[in-house]
Amino acid sequence: MEAQPYAAAPDDRPVLGSLPVEPLLTSEFDADPGAVYRRLRGRHGPVAPVGLMGVPVWLVLDYREVLDVLRNEYLWRRDIRYWRARAQGELPSGWPLLAGYEVRQTMFMDDEEHRAARQTLHTALRPFQEARGPQGWELRAAVSRYADDLVALLAAESGSAGFADLGAQYTRPLLLMVTTKLFGCPVDLGDELVMDLWRMLDGGPGAEPATTRALAAFTRLAAHRRARPGDDLTSYLLLADPRLSDEQLGRELFMNAVYLNDITGNMVLNTLLEVIRGNATVRRSLSAGQLSETVDRAALANPPVANMCFRFAARDTPLGNYWIRAGDAVSPSAAAAHQDLLAIGTSRLVDPALSTRSHLGWGAGQHQCPTAARELAGVLVAQAVGRILDHLTTVELTLPPDQLPWRTGPVVRGLRLLPVRYEMARPPSRHRGGVPREPDRRTRGLLAGLRRLMFRGQG
């Protein structure tokens, strides 16, 4: 897509090419990204030039400017074809984040194409959104069942009191089991889902082949469900839009798997962390039985997507103290913007009564997480958090909060593990009618794949 001819930049508003940029992903950022956001804001104002793996981009820091970018879809485009550096061949060879951006699916569409794709997803998810419908009821029952199975396995392996990693031993397998059920996955897709989605999301040197393999796996799933429709999201997507090819459907499943496993999984872990570490406002909501408010407060303190995917300027425009050229990439930072909301006592941006619902954990504007997906994910997070905390009478971190290992990257900031010491009142029963209820083959396969990945490292 061609950018318009450049207008003359005002003398007092520099452009990206004229500014020195500092790399964002540094050891300082790994240790304390909040301090980096504050320093960038103090030096540059609401928008800062940064280097992202060798590519200069704009990082949008202030809540008001972030909302402007997220809500104005006509000025700030999601289609990667607007990106000038890509169109002109200026990206470094093998730039690790490009593979994910090249997957053409709903998240990277604009205008009517985007609205039609969102409607298809909304229609397909609606049966699972309705708690009183058969599909919604069964999905929620399955989440509780899977959670109880994982707690029972933990008790069998480590006892009713001991040590655990609530990431590897609870949250991640739980979300993988939910994905397998929701998508109607055959058993043999489990390991691919674990291994390759994480490699792609980490943006390492294996990101491109991992993306290719994951897309191939979801394309095979699409073909499988086209031939054998079931009571699952894949089949309902085909029912909502029969024109979808296997490749198109595979790309949509890919996107939803990323959100369900990484984004929703991070929200579960981040909520658990805020509860365990003693965040007063989060724990007050939990004590009052307000699980949705608990999740919102945790997302405000630690959003699952720290820096959201790029938008591309459709035309030259001012933003903050700088002049954004048509085709420039900007990354709206939810984590930096939330610093404004957390300073609610002095901020004039948001009414305190609305502050927790003003978090950007699900995005904002036309490209925010679709309503049906957002509501379903919120229910899953609340259910996952509530279920594990119901079983544990005592749970405390085994590392100081500032020593927890984080998966830091350009988009997500998620815990690599959540190590705790726990005590449980009584493990959930794994017996039905006197017969031990062992995890099925699919559950065992997902857990085995996840553990292989955790012990190998997350290259």
How does this model look, in words?
A six-stranded mixed β-sheet has the order 1-2-3-9-6-4. The radius of gyration is 22 Å and the shape is globular. α12 (246-277) crosses α14 (291-301). The longest helix is centred in the middle third of the chain and has 32 residues, at 246-277. β7 (317-319) and β8 form a beta hairpin. The chain has 459 residues and is an alpha+beta fold. Helix content is 51%, strand content 12%. It is built from 17 helices and 15 strands. The chain has helices spanning 27-31, 33-44, 63-71, 84-87, 98-101, 111-129, 134-158, 167-183, 190-202, 207-227, 233-240, 246-277, 280-287, 291-301, 334-342, 371-391, 441-456; strands spanning 22-23, 47-52, 55-60, 76-77, 161-165, 311-313, 317-319, 322-324, 329-332, 392-397, 406-408, 413-415, 419-424, 431-432, 435-436.
Give me a quick take on this structure.
The chain has 459 residues and is α+β, with helices and mostly antiparallel strands. Helices cover 51% and strands 12% of the residues. The chain is built from 17 helices and 15 strands.
Within the largest sheet, what's the order of strands? 1-2-3-9-6-4
Main pleated sheet: 6 strands, mixed
Radius of gyration: 22 Å
Q: Count helical runs.
A: 17
Would you report the number of β strands? 15
Gross morphology is globular
Helix content: 40-55%
Estimate the strand proportion. 5-15%
**Low-confidence regions:** 345-354, 431-437, 453-459
Estimated structural class: alpha+beta
What is the average of the pLDDT values? 84
Instruction: Give the termini distance in whole angstroms.
Output: 34 Å
